[in-house]
Amino acid sequence: QHAISVTVSPDVTLLTEKLHTAQAICDVAWEKLNTGYWKDVQVVWRHLYSYGSLFKALLEVKLGRSTHIEIQDSCLPPVPLEFPIKNLVCPSLEHFAKEYLNKEEPVIITKGMNYWPALSTRPWSIRYLLEKVGGRTVPIELGSKYTDEAWSQKLMTVSAFVDRYILKKQSRDTQIGYLAQHQIFDQIPELRDDICIPTYCCLGEKDEEPDMNLWFGPEGTVSPLHHDPKNNLLAQVFGHKYVRLYKKEETPFLYPHEDRLLENTSQVDVENPDLEKFPSFANARYSECILKPGEMLFIPPKCWHFVRSLSPSLSISFWWE
Asked: pTM for the full model?
């Protein structure tokens, strides 16, 4: 606590250094909280994560950060994980290809985005996005998930989307809006300079850039259990997401829709499964993670995945073959 005590010093450099220390403490505690089984984690790591988050929030306020989203995120309680996905610090291309890509084994890659301008020299935040692209019109998905009957789409500016669905200035509006699976880098090339294509994407069979899509929304957005045909690196820029994965071998237990348009989507509500209607779902084995800023999750082809935003968040997916 002494190392990150908050003083009244106006020295921004000193406060920023303390903020980095607080973040480092949170990162160490978070790793301990998400290693092994939750019941085996010592309570001291929970306390350390809580103190680090509180000090980080105070420092954000003292530095005058306008992005209350970051402060809200700092207080995010860790979710107990029973079957955590393995994580590695920047594995070599050879190791990644041999142990994960070729074996179609999910893995979280940490510290592989540190050099992105979006996480370093030009850090993305709500304010930054509004300044860069606030006036641009984008398609917004309306509804908690695309399998809902009431799901629809609407065109609106990024600024209007943020006001209504991220900052929730219209407090009576309970509808969820999501800027999902949008190729924003084709529409707004200036944002492309803030990100970097992960080197792991070069391991594909085709000599072409991966498909890049942006996912930006408030807490509570859901991508129902589904699979995609390509390799996927899901890169988290800010915010946290809960992700649950089922390998393609579990497909017989997952009840895909019979409708051809939704055959890559499960009929099962992962968070509230109807086991009378879908009894075999209880036999499906899965792994899970809380994806945090600066982490990339490798999702193999045909690997079923369910995603829920635990806070306002932004992710970028890289799909390649």
From this structure: 0.76
